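This protein record is not my work; I was only asked to verify it. The record follows directly below this note.
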Amino acid sequence: MGWGSYLYTSTKKKSTKKKAANWFEKLSVVQLKELLAAAKLAISGSKVKQIQRLLDEPSTTIYSHEVNHMPIQARKKKGAYLTVKDIQVKCREAGVSPTGDRYTLVLRVLEHENKNSCDDKENQEPPKKKTEQPKLTGEDLKKRTKYRWLKLNKQIDERLTWKSSFAHMQGSLKGGRAQIDCSEPEVFMAMFGGANVIKMTSGGAKLSRSFKTDDEIEEANLFGKSYRYGACASLKAPASVNLNNGKLTFTFKYTVDK
Protein backbone atom coordinates (compact mmCIF):
# COMPACT_ATOMS: atom_id res chain seq x y z
CA MET A 1 0.00 0.00 0.00
CA GLY A 2 1.47 3.33 -1.07
CA TRP A 3 1.93 6.34 1.10
CA GLY A 4 -0.70 8.21 -0.92
CA SER A 5 -3.45 6.18 0.70
CA TYR A 6 -2.84 7.95 4.00
CA LEU A 7 -3.22 11.44 2.55
CA TYR A 8 -6.45 13.29 3.36
CA THR A 9 -7.89 16.67 2.73
CA SER A 10 -8.88 19.11 5.45
CA THR A 11 -12.58 19.02 6.36
CA LYS A 12 -12.62 22.18 8.49
CA LYS A 13 -15.70 24.29 7.78
CA LYS A 14 -15.37 27.94 7.14
CA SER A 15 -17.12 30.18 9.64
CA THR A 16 -20.58 31.18 8.42
CA LYS A 17 -21.04 33.89 11.07
CA LYS A 18 -21.92 37.17 9.38
CA LYS A 19 -19.63 40.03 10.19
CA ALA A 20 -21.39 43.02 11.74
CA ALA A 21 -21.69 45.91 9.29
CA ASN A 22 -21.57 48.43 12.14
CA TRP A 23 -21.19 48.59 15.90
CA PHE A 24 -24.92 49.02 16.51
CA GLU A 25 -25.58 45.52 15.14
CA LYS A 26 -23.59 44.06 18.05
CA LEU A 27 -25.96 45.59 20.58
CA SER A 28 -29.13 44.07 21.97
CA VAL A 29 -32.59 45.51 21.32
CA VAL A 30 -32.68 46.79 24.91
CA GLN A 31 -29.38 48.61 24.44
CA LEU A 32 -30.52 50.08 21.14
CA LYS A 33 -33.67 51.40 22.77
CA GLU A 34 -31.61 53.03 25.53
CA LEU A 35 -29.41 54.77 22.95
CA LEU A 36 -32.47 55.91 20.97
CA ALA A 37 -34.15 57.25 24.09
CA ALA A 38 -30.98 59.09 25.15
CA ALA A 39 -30.77 60.67 21.67
CA LYS A 40 -34.49 61.64 21.82
CA LEU A 41 -35.33 59.36 18.90
CA ALA A 42 -38.29 56.99 18.48
CA ILE A 43 -37.64 53.55 19.99
CA SER A 44 -40.36 51.66 18.11
CA GLY A 45 -39.86 49.25 15.23
CA SER A 46 -37.69 46.25 14.49
CA LYS A 47 -33.99 46.06 15.28
CA VAL A 48 -33.17 46.87 11.66
CA LYS A 49 -35.29 50.05 11.80
CA GLN A 50 -33.81 51.04 15.15
CA ILE A 51 -30.27 50.71 13.79
CA GLN A 52 -31.15 52.64 10.64
CA ARG A 53 -32.56 55.43 12.80
CA LEU A 54 -29.26 55.68 14.67
CA LEU A 55 -27.30 55.63 11.41
CA ASP A 56 -29.44 58.42 9.92
CA GLU A 57 -29.02 60.72 12.92
CA PRO A 58 -25.79 62.83 12.75
CA SER A 59 -25.39 62.89 16.54
CA THR A 60 -25.35 59.06 16.77
CA THR A 61 -23.89 57.85 13.48
CA ILE A 62 -20.42 59.00 14.59
CA TYR A 63 -20.42 56.05 17.03
CA SER A 64 -21.52 53.46 14.46
CA HIS A 65 -18.04 52.07 13.68
CA GLU A 66 -15.29 50.97 16.03
CA VAL A 67 -12.05 52.48 14.80
CA ASN A 68 -8.56 52.46 16.26
CA HIS A 69 -6.57 55.58 16.97
CA MET A 70 -5.46 57.16 13.73
CA PRO A 71 -4.58 60.60 12.42
CA ILE A 72 -7.54 62.95 12.16
CA GLN A 73 -7.23 63.32 8.38
CA ALA A 74 -7.24 59.57 7.88
CA ARG A 75 -10.24 59.21 10.20
CA LYS A 76 -12.23 61.76 8.22
CA LYS A 77 -11.86 59.64 5.12
CA LYS A 78 -13.65 56.83 6.95
CA GLY A 79 -16.55 59.03 8.03
CA ALA A 80 -15.16 60.82 11.11
CA TYR A 81 -16.09 57.92 13.41
CA LEU A 82 -14.96 58.28 17.02
CA THR A 83 -12.49 56.02 18.81
CA VAL A 84 -12.96 55.03 22.45
CA LYS A 85 -10.39 57.68 23.40
CA ASP A 86 -12.38 60.30 21.49
CA ILE A 87 -15.54 59.30 23.38
CA GLN A 88 -13.68 59.46 26.70
CA VAL A 89 -12.58 62.98 25.86
CA LYS A 90 -16.22 63.93 25.20
CA CYS A 91 -17.13 62.41 28.59
CA ARG A 92 -14.54 64.53 30.37
CA GLU A 93 -15.71 67.65 28.55
CA ALA A 94 -19.27 66.86 29.62
CA GLY A 95 -18.20 66.32 33.22
CA VAL A 96 -19.27 62.66 33.33
CA SER A 97 -17.23 59.57 34.15
CA PRO A 98 -14.86 58.47 31.33
CA THR A 99 -14.69 54.87 32.60
CA GLY A 100 -16.61 51.86 31.33
CA ASP A 101 -17.11 50.03 28.06
CA ARG A 102 -17.85 51.71 24.74
CA TYR A 103 -21.63 51.34 25.10
CA THR A 104 -21.68 52.93 28.58
CA LEU A 105 -19.54 55.85 27.40
CA VAL A 106 -21.72 56.52 24.35
CA LEU A 107 -24.89 56.37 26.44
CA ARG A 108 -23.49 58.90 28.94
CA VAL A 109 -22.49 61.34 26.22
CA LEU A 110 -25.89 61.16 24.47
CA GLU A 111 -27.78 61.62 27.73
CA HIS A 112 -25.67 64.65 28.62
CA GLU A 113 -25.98 66.27 25.17
CA ASN A 114 -29.74 65.90 25.03
CA LYS A 115 -30.21 66.98 28.64
CA ASN A 116 -28.45 70.24 27.79
CA SER A 117 -30.56 70.75 24.67
CA CYS A 118 -33.74 70.31 26.74
CA ASP A 119 -32.45 72.78 29.35
CA ASP A 120 -31.71 75.31 26.61
CA LYS A 121 -35.29 75.02 25.30
CA GLU A 122 -36.69 75.54 28.80
CA ASN A 123 -34.55 78.66 29.26
CA GLN A 124 -35.67 80.17 26.00
CA GLU A 125 -38.09 83.08 26.15
CA PRO A 126 -41.71 82.17 25.45
CA PRO A 127 -42.89 83.08 21.93
CA LYS A 128 -44.25 86.56 21.66
CA LYS A 129 -47.95 86.93 21.13
CA LYS A 130 -49.04 88.26 17.80
CA THR A 131 -49.72 91.93 17.97
CA GLU A 132 -53.29 92.90 17.20
CA GLN A 133 -53.98 94.89 14.08
CA PRO A 134 -54.86 98.53 14.85
CA LYS A 135 -58.59 99.24 14.67
CA LEU A 136 -59.89 101.24 11.76
CA THR A 137 -61.23 104.68 12.57
CA GLY A 138 -62.38 107.84 10.83
CA GLU A 139 -62.13 107.98 7.07
CA ASP A 140 -60.42 104.58 6.84
CA LEU A 141 -63.35 102.95 8.63
CA LYS A 142 -65.86 104.65 6.32
CA LYS A 143 -64.04 103.47 3.18
CA ARG A 144 -63.71 99.88 4.40
CA THR A 145 -67.35 99.79 5.51
CA LYS A 146 -68.55 101.01 2.10
CA TYR A 147 -66.36 98.40 0.40
CA ARG A 148 -67.78 95.56 2.53
CA TRP A 149 -71.36 96.69 1.82
CA LEU A 150 -70.74 96.67 -1.93
CA LYS A 151 -69.19 93.19 -1.77
CA LEU A 152 -72.04 91.79 0.34
CA ASN A 153 -74.80 93.26 -1.81
CA LYS A 154 -73.11 91.93 -4.94
CA GLN A 155 -73.23 88.44 -3.43
CA ILE A 156 -76.94 88.92 -2.62
CA ASP A 157 -77.68 90.12 -6.18
CA GLU A 158 -75.97 87.03 -7.61
CA ARG A 159 -78.10 84.82 -5.37
CA LEU A 160 -81.29 86.53 -6.54
CA THR A 161 -80.41 86.58 -10.23
CA TRP A 162 -83.28 85.09 -12.17
CA LYS A 163 -83.32 81.31 -12.48
CA SER A 164 -85.78 79.02 -14.16
CA SER A 165 -86.70 77.56 -10.78
CA PHE A 166 -88.16 80.94 -9.76
CA ALA A 167 -91.17 80.29 -12.01
CA HIS A 168 -92.23 77.44 -9.70
CA MET A 169 -92.07 79.37 -6.41
CA GLN A 170 -94.70 82.01 -7.00
CA GLY A 171 -95.44 83.67 -3.67
CA SER A 172 -93.44 81.14 -1.62
CA LEU A 173 -90.32 81.77 0.47
CA LYS A 174 -86.90 80.32 -0.30
CA GLY A 175 -83.70 80.43 1.76
CA GLY A 176 -80.46 82.02 0.65
CA ARG A 177 -77.02 82.92 1.98
CA ALA A 178 -74.29 85.40 1.04
CA GLN A 179 -70.79 85.43 2.50
CA ILE A 180 -67.74 87.72 2.24
CA ASP A 181 -64.39 88.09 4.03
CA CYS A 182 -64.39 90.56 6.92
CA SER A 183 -61.64 90.49 9.53
CA GLU A 184 -62.57 93.78 11.22
CA PRO A 185 -65.19 93.67 14.01
CA GLU A 186 -65.38 97.47 13.94
CA VAL A 187 -66.51 97.32 10.29
CA PHE A 188 -69.28 94.88 11.18
CA MET A 189 -70.43 97.19 13.98
CA ALA A 190 -70.37 100.18 11.64
CA MET A 191 -72.52 98.28 9.15
CA PHE A 192 -75.03 96.73 11.53
CA GLY A 193 -74.46 98.33 14.93
CA GLY A 194 -77.08 99.88 17.14
CA ALA A 195 -78.58 99.58 20.60
CA ASN A 196 -79.45 96.05 21.65
CA VAL A 197 -78.60 94.48 18.30
CA ILE A 198 -74.96 93.42 18.74
CA LYS A 199 -74.26 90.19 20.59
CA MET A 200 -70.66 89.52 21.53
CA THR A 201 -69.49 86.07 22.68
CA SER A 202 -66.77 85.36 25.23
CA GLY A 203 -64.28 85.09 22.33
CA GLY A 204 -64.91 88.73 21.51
CA ALA A 205 -64.74 88.24 17.71
CA LYS A 206 -68.20 86.79 17.07
CA LEU A 207 -70.95 89.30 16.37
CA SER A 208 -74.50 88.87 15.16
CA ARG A 209 -77.71 90.73 14.41
CA SER A 210 -81.15 89.53 13.43
CA PHE A 211 -83.75 91.27 11.24
CA LYS A 212 -87.39 90.59 12.11
CA THR A 213 -89.00 92.78 9.43
CA ASP A 214 -88.38 93.67 5.80
CA ASP A 215 -87.97 97.32 6.80
CA GLU A 216 -85.08 96.45 9.13
CA ILE A 217 -83.29 94.71 6.25
CA GLU A 218 -83.75 97.77 4.03
CA GLU A 219 -82.59 100.13 6.79
CA ALA A 220 -79.38 98.09 7.08
CA ASN A 221 -78.65 98.89 3.40
CA LEU A 222 -79.06 95.25 2.40
CA PHE A 223 -80.89 94.81 -0.86
CA GLY A 224 -81.18 92.53 -3.82
CA LYS A 225 -83.88 92.48 -6.44
CA SER A 226 -83.98 90.73 -9.76
CA TYR A 227 -86.62 91.56 -12.39
CA ARG A 228 -87.36 89.30 -15.34
CA TYR A 229 -90.44 88.20 -17.23
CA GLY A 230 -92.56 90.48 -15.06
CA ALA A 231 -91.44 88.78 -11.80
CA CYS A 232 -89.51 90.30 -8.93
CA ALA A 233 -87.24 88.42 -6.50
CA SER A 234 -86.72 90.33 -3.26
CA LEU A 235 -85.36 89.89 0.28
CA LYS A 236 -87.73 88.95 3.08
CA ALA A 237 -87.50 88.66 6.84
CA PRO A 238 -86.56 86.85 8.98
CA ALA A 239 -82.87 87.26 8.27
CA SER A 240 -79.61 87.44 10.22
CA VAL A 241 -76.02 88.51 9.77
CA ASN A 242 -73.02 87.32 11.77
CA LEU A 243 -69.25 87.67 11.91
CA ASN A 244 -67.23 84.58 12.81
CA ASN A 245 -63.56 83.71 12.12
CA GLY A 246 -63.12 86.49 9.57
CA LYS A 247 -66.27 85.61 7.59
CA LEU A 248 -69.35 87.82 7.37
CA THR A 249 -72.42 85.73 6.57
CA PHE A 250 -75.90 87.00 5.70
CA THR A 251 -78.66 84.39 5.90
CA PHE A 252 -82.01 85.47 4.48
CA LYS A 253 -85.32 84.57 2.88
CA TYR A 254 -86.53 85.73 -0.51
CA THR A 255 -89.64 85.41 -2.61
CA VAL A 256 -90.67 85.86 -6.23
CA ASP A 257 -93.82 87.82 -7.05
CA LYS A 258 -95.48 88.70 -10.33
Observations:
- The chain is about 40% helix and 15% strand.
- The radius of gyration is 39 Å.
- Residues 21-122 form one domain.
- The first strand starts at residue 173 and ends at 181.
